[in-house]
């Protein structure tokens, strides 16, 4: 398996400006969120990148991508149709190839020198199957994420075989169907906002969207749940930390995480201490 | 290995099911003690829950039924107070250690009774703990115990229900049937039983819609729960059926179950995870929690409605209402996939598991089939063996939750279902009883594998298979025969108390009237008398419905003073519900709560300034007003609202007048009442003031203080027999009391309660006592005069009952001797208690601590009742109840003096001048007889009074025989300066008292001749009464309301007690120790089973002549 394509979804109507948000990256350079996400994909080896946007957003997004604008292909989601539909809009771009999928409102910080997406792609290539990045999360976060149920692969600390996937499950459903042996009580494998997917997911999404009474209810989770029954899907945990820029104080915490993990760490720390010392 | 250990740990069922009693009958004392030591080791070392529990039950039963009166066990002994205090605090292990240490000197009956109680309670505690652990560990419930802060709350109300724009909030409405058990499962749905014997835990459970015949147009799902999001940050709970509503803004109040009548709704809110149990006590703000669930500034409203189905229907109405409330909350928060329509199987199971959790939280409990209404149609519910991965695996043989197999048309055809509905008449007989003790008895008998009961259980298991076969064959008549055989056979073998005289009278009347067209009787639930089924030939069902209503009313009228009825009997219309619980969504103009909700809430809203109402409330009132004009179910609502808006008097004028007349009729002394009120309010009298000074020296009896009845010789017997033959003796049965503990303040006449079967029939206390007098009379050749003392509460019913039982010669129960009633001459008016007395009773005197959650509920109830006393006015007259429930008897001291005042004794003496002695006894001392030897002792000693005492056991609380500052006398428990003092006393007062009439009259300063002088007698009684202490006491009184609902209030009353006569220095009193079988009293119906099993019933039966 070779992964050379990436799809970034950034068509959420209520959060369409988030990818344009200016941040200061770890190297001290001001960049938009989209720019940073694109660099994550590039670092993972993608050389063709598709961004799914709202109609009319291509131009500002291209501008926000800075020096990488030329490498991006924009696909518009013609009308609000939910997450699954947005991803399915990239079906022609993906064709028959596996692809890296990143959500446009998250930023990731790796625990190692290698990027999170880079590590994810490496595992997908090695295992030759779809892999979703996940993060063990407390159950209070269940209303915000897709969640994976499965079991740990023998001899692998952070790799799981996916058996069930649910979108924003209740804790009741999670406890009944998504408990993963080896995790702390009340913790579940929540999506990390990045996946390496096979073209099969596009096929499932397409069929689900055709059959659904309400296409907005079709999610990547529901497609992966179905796909897990017929092809091997893995989940890779503990790549680093994820930051949802769209959450309450999401921009602030994402920026702090970038700054404290980068070249301006001391400067930001001093500012924080000064703030803390003030009444 | 010991034999009993082998029985408990055996892998093969044949050994495991061997009976304990069979082994113990042939065992010596040493063998029994050795087995106890082995069982003690087993229970301490075994990892298996049921081995431990069964060992505990064996230990209990050996001590209670086999060691207590075994040869070699000392009959008299002491229970260490330290151990008793541990028992009260539920420190059972510590209590057992203390009792065992005391037993090192050799076993005594007192210690055996204490150890039996400790083992019994520890066994049930162990079982309850396991059920609780299992409920918490059900997958889908665990997370609720982890949430400790609003920010951690992982639930959200579904978007569809959140307010949007000007549209009214959607109302999510859950409609749920109730369930009936079509075979009566021999209580096999008790959790403990299903978890140990899953293969024997099977029930045939049918979901039904109900209507009350003559009131409702058609059957419908009887319970309904509605939920909506509101634009106020409160949790608004309303119980339409109980007429209660509250806006809750404080998290702690959600966990305060007994504060009001909203406990069930609170339990549902918690068990569904809306307010997760883990957040209790966190100090979090309820508003923050609701904002996280809904949106800032918003809250949730939950409404329950039961469509007029009376309490105690044995159809699990409250459990299904709880499940309905939980289901609607689960749907609203996305915990059920579908917002409307039925639930899927996993969701139904979760709702059932959470209903169990909710019942535990609210301090109640039912069986595992009770939430069967959540499922559709007819289903077979079975216990399941625990498998690897289950929380129960390795702990118990069975799972907590059973499996449900819905019976399809192949198992029960539509025609059979229709035929069943065309034959069965469902009724509520009107009795509402506490079935808790029965469920404990069932558990105990199962674990002991008592031979007859175990055979009965196996037989009942077979009945279910036969009913299934009859259903398959469409043979309804056969079902009737099977359920009848089940009721009269195995069910009563296991629990004789499942039947009542009322039930059997109904069956007899129906059988007499319908003959072969009456196909069978069928008991619903824990016991009969409430919900019941009668099966008829289809052609006569309609007639049977009408006639049953009349038969039940007439039978109830004949027994309503003898048995606790909570309501008038009703006949139901019913239909099998094939959908189970379903939800629908009400929107637009239809987005309304149940009609009763508006009858309850609109008057309050109308009294408010309209500008103070939220926009949503104003809009809702507009919708409601419009609906009143167009919706037929709201017709009559305007009149209802008008009635509610006008202020209403608390007690009707008729009621007040009736109370006043009763007081006047029964000699109420207003001046004395006002004095007592003033003394109570000022603190001169009260619970604390009942006690003797703390400096009082209380010592046990000394050798020679008490005669031993067992040691009395032929001379005493001859002396007594001669007096009996000469007609010198009469019996006085004290029957003025209401038996507060017997029916928890229901106000029935205990003397008339047909409490048990003796010689094949239910007999009342009155009948049993007369039967003993008949036997004595026949044996000694002279009929004993028998006097029943009565009170305002008991006189009318007793006279009517005796008249109703008169034979052709006008002799009640065919009793040939003189039979008199001695009516009471004093009555008190109950008072609202002082808060300090309530606190003293509940907080400062040792109390039995309940299981964790039940204790919390009780403390909450106590706080509410103290609030009630303050709000209603401490020391005020208690008049907010039925008039008879507002009066109180003034203690048994007055019962014998009443015979002086009302002329009963004078008349008797005129007829029988030779009459010299009375034997007075409590109505519940069933073993009391005119024993010639004891009578002979009394005559020989020449005392004015001879009191019978028994060796004290653990439960014998309330005083005893003591040397008080050196004087030998009976000391009431109320007067004990310290609780511990009672535990040093060897003997307990039976209240059976032999009286020398002339010496007693002398104590009053009277002679036989002066009895004709009413004024002289009244003065004499008043003068002696003044020398007897007055005790203030608290009694529980039931207040009935609504559809069979009952509230219990503590009220203050005063009393004087006969035992205090022994404190009079100028009255010669003697004391004689009698066997327990003779002296024990039946105070609580929960005692009945032990009374039957330990030989007491047979002993009493042998004393009686019931021909």
Describe the fold and architecture:
The complex is a heterodimer of chains A (279) and B (1107). By secondary structure, chain A is an alpha/beta fold. Chain A has a single domain (5-277), classed as Spore Coat Polysaccharide Biosynthesis Protein SpsA, Chain A (Alpha-Beta Complex), CATH 3.90.550.10. Chain A has 10 helices and 13 strands. In chain B, strands 2, 3, 9, 10, 11, 12, 13 and 14 form an 8-stranded antiparallel beta sheet that branches. Chain B has an 8-stranded mixed beta sheet with strand order 17-32-26-29-25-18-21-22. In chain B, strands 6-5-7-4-1-15-8 form a 7-stranded mixed beta sheet, with helices on both faces. Chain B is globular, with a radius of gyration of 31 Å. Chain B is of the alpha+beta class and 1107 residues long. In chain B, helix 4 (29-45) runs antiparallel to helix 5 (49-67), helix 26 crosses helix 34 and helix 29 runs antiparallel to helix 30 (852-872). Chain B is built from 40 helices and 32 strands. The chains are: A alpha/beta (279), B alpha+beta (1107). Chain A binds chain B through residues 138-143, 170-176, 179, 185-186, and chain B through 139-144, 146-147, 151-156, 273, 330, 333-335, 346, 350.
């Amino acid at each position: 398996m070779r992964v050379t394509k990436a799809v970034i979804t950034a068509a959420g109507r209520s959060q369409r400006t988030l990818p344009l948000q200016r941040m200061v990256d770890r190297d001290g350079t001001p960049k938009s969120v989209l720019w940073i996400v694109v660099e994550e994909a590039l670092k993972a080896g993608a050389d063709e990148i598709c961004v799914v946007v709202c109609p009319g957003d291509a131009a500002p997004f291209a501008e926000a991508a800075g020096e990488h604008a030329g490498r991006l292909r924009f696909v518009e989601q013609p009308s609000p149709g939910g997450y699954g539909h947005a991803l399915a809009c990239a079906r022609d771009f993906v064709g028959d190839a596996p692809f890296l999928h990143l959500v446009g409102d998250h930023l990731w910080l790796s625990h190692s020198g290698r990027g999170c997406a880079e590590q994810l792609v490496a595992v997908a290539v090695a295992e030759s199957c779809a892999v979703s990045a996940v993060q063990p999360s407390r159950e209070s976060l269940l209303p915000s994420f897709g969640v994976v149920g499965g079991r740990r692969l023998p001899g692998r600390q952070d790799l799981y075989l996916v058996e069930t996937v649910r979108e924003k499950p209740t804790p009741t459903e999670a406890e009944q169907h998504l408990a993963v042996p080896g995790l702390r009580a009340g913790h579940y494998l929540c999506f990390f906002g990045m996946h390496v997917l096979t073209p099969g997911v596009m096929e499932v999404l397409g069929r689900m969207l055709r059959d659904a009474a309400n296409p907005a209810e079709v999610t990547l989770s529901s497609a992966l749940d179905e796909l897990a029954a017929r092809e091997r899907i893995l989940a890779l945990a503990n790549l680093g930390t994820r930051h949802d820029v769209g959450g309450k104080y999401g921009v602030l915490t994402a920026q702090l995480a970038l700054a404290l993990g980068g070249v301006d760490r001391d400067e930001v720390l001093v500012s924080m201490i000064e703030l803390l010392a003030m009444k | 290995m010991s034999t009993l250990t082998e029985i408990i740990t055996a892998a093969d069922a044949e050994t495991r099911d061997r009976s304990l009693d069979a082994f113990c009958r042939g065992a010596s004392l040493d063998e029994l003690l050795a087995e106890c030591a082995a069982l003690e080791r087993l229970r301490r070392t075994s990892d298996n829950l049921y081995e431990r529990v069964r060992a505990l039950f064996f230990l209990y039963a050996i001590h209670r039924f086999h060691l207590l009166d075994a040869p070699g066990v000392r009959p008299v002994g002491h229970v260490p107070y330290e151990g008793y205090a541990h028992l009260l605090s539920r420190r059972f292990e510590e209590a057992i250690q203390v009792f065992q240490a005391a037993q090192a000197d050799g076993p005594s009956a007192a210690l055996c009774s204490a150890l039996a109680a400790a083992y019994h309670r520890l066994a049930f505690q162990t079982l309850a703990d396991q059920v609780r652990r299992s409920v918490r560990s059900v997958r889908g419930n665990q997370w609720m115990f982890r949430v400790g802060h609003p920010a951690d709350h992982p639930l959200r109300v579904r978007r569809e229900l959140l307010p949007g724009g000007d549209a009214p909030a959607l109302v999510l409405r859950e409609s749920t049937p109730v369930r009936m058990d079509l075979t009566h499962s021999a209580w096999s749905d008790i959790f403990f039983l299903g978890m140990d014997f899953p293969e024997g835990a099977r029930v045939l459970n049918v979901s039904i819609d109900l209507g009350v015949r003559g009131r409702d147009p058609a059957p419908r799902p009887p319970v309904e729960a509605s939920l909506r999001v509101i634009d106020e940050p409160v949790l608004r709970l309303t119980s339409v059926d109980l007429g209660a509503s509250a806006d809750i803004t404080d998290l702690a109040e959600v966990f305060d179950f007994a504060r009001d009548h909203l406990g069930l709704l609170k339990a549902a809110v918690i068990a569904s995870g809306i307010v997760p149990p883990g957040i209790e006590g966190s100090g979090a703000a309820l508003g923050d929690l609701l904002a996280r669930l809904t949106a800032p500034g918003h809250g949730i409203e939950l409404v329950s409605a039961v469509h007029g189905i009376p309490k105690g229907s044995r159809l699990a109405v409250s459990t299904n209402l709880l499940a309905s409330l939980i289901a609607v909350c689960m749907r609203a928060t996305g915990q059920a996939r579908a917002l409307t329509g039925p639930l899927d199987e996993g969701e139904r199971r979760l709702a059932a598991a959470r209903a169990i959790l909710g019942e535990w939280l609210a301090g109640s409990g039912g069986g595992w089939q009770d939430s069967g209404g959540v499922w559709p149609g007819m289903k077979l519910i079975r216990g399941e063996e625990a498998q690897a991965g289950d929380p129960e695996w390795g702990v118990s043989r069975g799972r907590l939750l059973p499996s449900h197999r819905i019976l399809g048309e192949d198992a029960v055809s539509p025609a059979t279902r229709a035929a069943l509905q065309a034959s069965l008449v469902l009724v509520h007989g009107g009795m509402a009883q506490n079935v808790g003790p029965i469920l404990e008895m069932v558990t105990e008998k199962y674990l002991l594998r008592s031979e007859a009961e175990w055979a009965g259980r196996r037989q009942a298991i077979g009945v279910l298979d036969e009913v299934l076969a009859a259903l398959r064959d469409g043979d309804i008549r056969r079902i009737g025969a099977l359920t009848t055989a089940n009721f009269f056979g195995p069910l009563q073998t296991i629990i004789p108390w499942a039947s009542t005289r009322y039930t059997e009278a109904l069956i007899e009347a129906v059988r007499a009237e319908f003959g072969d067209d009456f196909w069978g009787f069928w008991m619903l639930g824990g016991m009969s008398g409430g919900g019941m089924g009668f099966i008829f030939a289809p052609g006569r069902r309609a007639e049977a419905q009408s006639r049953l209503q009349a038969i039940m009313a007439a039978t109830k009228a004949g027994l309503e003073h003898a048995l606790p009825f909570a309501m008038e009997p009703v006949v139901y219309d019913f239909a099998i519900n094939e959908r189970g619980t379903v939800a629908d969504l009400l929107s637009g103009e239809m987005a309304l709560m149940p009609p009763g909700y508006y009858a309850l809430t609109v008057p309050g809203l109308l009294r408010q300034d309209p500008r103070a109402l939220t926009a949503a409330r104003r809009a809702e009132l507009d919708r409601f007003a419009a609906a009143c004009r167009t919706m037929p179910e709201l017709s009559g609502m305007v009149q209802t609202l008008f009635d509610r808006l006008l202020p209403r008097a608390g007690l009707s004028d008729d009621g007040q007048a009736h109370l006043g007349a009763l007081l006047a009729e029964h000699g109420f002394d207003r001046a004395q009442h006002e004095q007592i009120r003033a003394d109570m309010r000022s603190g001169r009298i009260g619970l604390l003031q009942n006690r003797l000074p703390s400096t009082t020296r209380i010592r046990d009896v000394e050798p020679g203080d008490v005669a031993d009845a067992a040691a009395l010789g032929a001379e005493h017997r001859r002396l007594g027999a001669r007096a009996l033959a000469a007609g010198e003796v009469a019996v006085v049965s004290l029957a003025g009391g209401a038996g507060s503990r017997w029916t928890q303040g229901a106000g029935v006449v205990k003397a008339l309660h047909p409490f048990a079967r003796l010689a094949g029939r239910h007999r009342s206390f009155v009948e049993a006592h007369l039967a003993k007098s008949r036997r004595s009379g026949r044996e000694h050749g002279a009929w004993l005069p028998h006097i029943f003392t009565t009170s305002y509460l008991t006189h009318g019913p007793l006279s009517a009952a005796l008249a109703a039982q008169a034979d052709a010669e006008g002799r009640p129960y065919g009793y040939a001797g003189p039979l008199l009633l001695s009516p009471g001459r004093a009555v008190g008016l109950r008072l609202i208690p002082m808060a300090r007395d309530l606190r003293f009773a509940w907080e400062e005197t040792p109390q039995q601590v309940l299981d964790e959650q039940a204790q919390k509920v009780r403390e909450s109830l106590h706080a509410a009742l103290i609030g009630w006393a303050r709000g209603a006015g401490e020391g005020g007259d208690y008049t907010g109840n039925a008039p008879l429930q507002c009066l109180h008897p003034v203690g048994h001291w007055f019962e014998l003096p009443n015979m002086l005042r009302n002329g009963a004794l004078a008349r008797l003496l005129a007829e029988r001048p030779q009459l010299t002695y009375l034997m007075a006894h409590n109505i519940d001392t069933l073993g009391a007889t005119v024993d010639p030897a004891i009578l002979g002792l009394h005559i020989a000693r020449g005392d004015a009074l001879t009191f019978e005492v028994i060796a004290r056991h653990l439960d014998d609380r309330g005083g005893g025989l003591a040397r008080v500052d050196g004087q030998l006398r009976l000391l009431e428990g109320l007067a004990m300066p310290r609780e511990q003092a009672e535990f040093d006393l060897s003997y307990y007062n039976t209240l059976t008292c032999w009286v020398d009439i002339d010496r007693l009259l002398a104590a009053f300063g009277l002679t036989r001749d002066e009895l004709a002088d009413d004024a002289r007698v009244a003065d004499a009684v008043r003068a002696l009464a003044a020398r007897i202490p007055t005790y203030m006491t608290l009694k529980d009184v039931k207040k009935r309301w609504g559809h069979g609902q009952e509230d219990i209030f503590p009220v203050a009353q005063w009393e004087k007690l006969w035992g205090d006569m022994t404190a009079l220095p100028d009255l010669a009193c003697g004391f004689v120790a009698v066997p327990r079988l003779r002296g024990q009293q039946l105070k609580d119906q929960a005692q009945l089973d032990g009374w039957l099993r330990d030989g007491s019933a047979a002993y009493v039966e042998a004393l009686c002549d019931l021909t």
